[in-house]
Amino acid sequence: MQNSFWIYLVMIIMAQLIGIEVVTCQNKNYVSDSEISKYILAEGVKLSPSILKKEQNSSSLIQLIAQPIDKSNKDLQKLNTTNWQWDENDREWFQKISLPAQSQIYIRLDWISLSKGESLQVIDLVSGYTMDRFDDTIEPQVIGPYPTEEIGIVVKTTNSSEFDQLKIGEVYIGAMDFGYDSSYECHKNISCEEGKEFADEERGVVRILMVLEEGMGFCTGSLINNAENDRTPYVLSAFHCQDGFTPFFDMWSFDFGYESFSCADPDNEPSFVRVTGSEMVAGHGPTDMLLLKILGPLPEESNAYYSGWNRNDSYEADGGVLIHHPRGDIKKVSVDADPIVPFKSTLNWDNGITTPAGSHLVTRFDESTYQGGSSGAPLLDYNGHIIGQLHGGPDDDELCSIGIGYHGKLSQSWEGGGTAQTRLKDWLDPNNIGDTIVNGVELNSSGSSFISLVGRLATPDGIAIPNVRVSIKGDKVESFMTGPDGRFVFDNIPKSGTYSLEFVKNTNHGNGVSALDLVQIMNHILGTNPLFGTFQQRSADANDDGQVSSLDLVQILNIIIGRTEVLPNNTSWKFEPSIIEMTPENSASFNRQIIGYKIGDVNFSANPRR
Fold it and tell me: Is 594 exposed, middle or buried (CB count within 10 Å of its CB: 0-12, 13-18, 19+)?
């Protein structure tokens, strides 16, 4: 009877709430509605998306797709003075950029020089969220891609003279119709069962954002160990990713950890760790081998792994996997359960290149396939050793029904063209040790008595959760506040200790809580439409008593109508796991995904940034 009374009372109050506008504080990461209106009304640049690959030549006997983008497509545009508009009230120059549906924007910045008090901001005009902000001199780099159809570039300054007199540098804009959620649905995520045996090796596979004079493109690469185990950040990829273009290697970016943490696709784009800057150290067209070296040390939060390799030319693997980023999408895995053998004929490619017989391995994938952007991905045997990198193959379909791939053979790239600039030998075995098989190695030094604890906090939909206090307690006490990417890292943690990790975020209890949540919780209690999934039910437990009841409805209702600002028996966010106990003495690495859910928000509408 008591439950029925409270439900009836809540229903009456809710009926009065329908149509009431709830006003919340504006988050500092968002621009105001008036600003958005101003930017949207502005005239802007309209872009067309890049072409991922050339059209097939119908006269070819077999069409092998290798090119990451079309050489003839030059849609990278320099922003000019015509489209910049000055706003006297806000003391800023702004420009709107429009994209076609389902494309993404990237921005190339060439030495942006900002004075004290000036800033450059990139704003999503759909949501009003400030995606990037710079307050100091910006070295040449690429930012994005941003998955939005309307973007605003804003330069806040005291200088109201003509924009070209600001001399802030050069800003180039381009658009892609590939990136997050653009690959075939038939691909398998790396966290599916097919990829679990390669949990170490996949941490070294990176999405490469290539910066070229002709435009932008994606390829895949992998950190590869050398015989010295000295952790030189070499990345193995495909020669054709830069062949025929004008690459700016110092602006190429390498994205670590760009993946789903479950077999299912996330509802929102996951974050990643980006490292920018590289140089080409070797390349060999006949085996489509490209070896890059990342400039500067790799950050601990990359949780990187250097894969091993097998250069035995007579070795035929019993099967293997390809770990890759098709169309620049999140990390996928393809499986060939049959013996992998050399292809004994020449191969004619769509860019006019013919590769010799015996230079490539051929796979016929039993699970999944690849697409443009997968080029350069490591082909690994069941021992986790790289035996080649993906060149390409016949264009596949959305059912992954073809699955034939050709991979430059690592053993043939070892001697390559006979010089240091055309072979792997000088870089992967600099002291001529002569090993034919080298195992993989962790980013952290072998035998180290310390470990880095790395992780990421995200909602059940995969959205990063910033402003979470992560505390390590035990033999070492330290705290870390997560940033926009939701990641945390504790360096130099002695392995001999015993520790616990705890996660706390207790701000803005009303974030995402509305009458719609009450309706869903009532339906769950009444049994008419039960809440789906563990995290929905946990979010509904407002009074933290382990069950969903009318008492939870009352507490959530009090938040909505403003009777109270906090839940008396609960924090605003909860995490799973809430505490991690560990003794990392025998661990090589630690990297965890922590799921956070907002209490009272059963439809997951809360903005984690607030």
Answer: buried
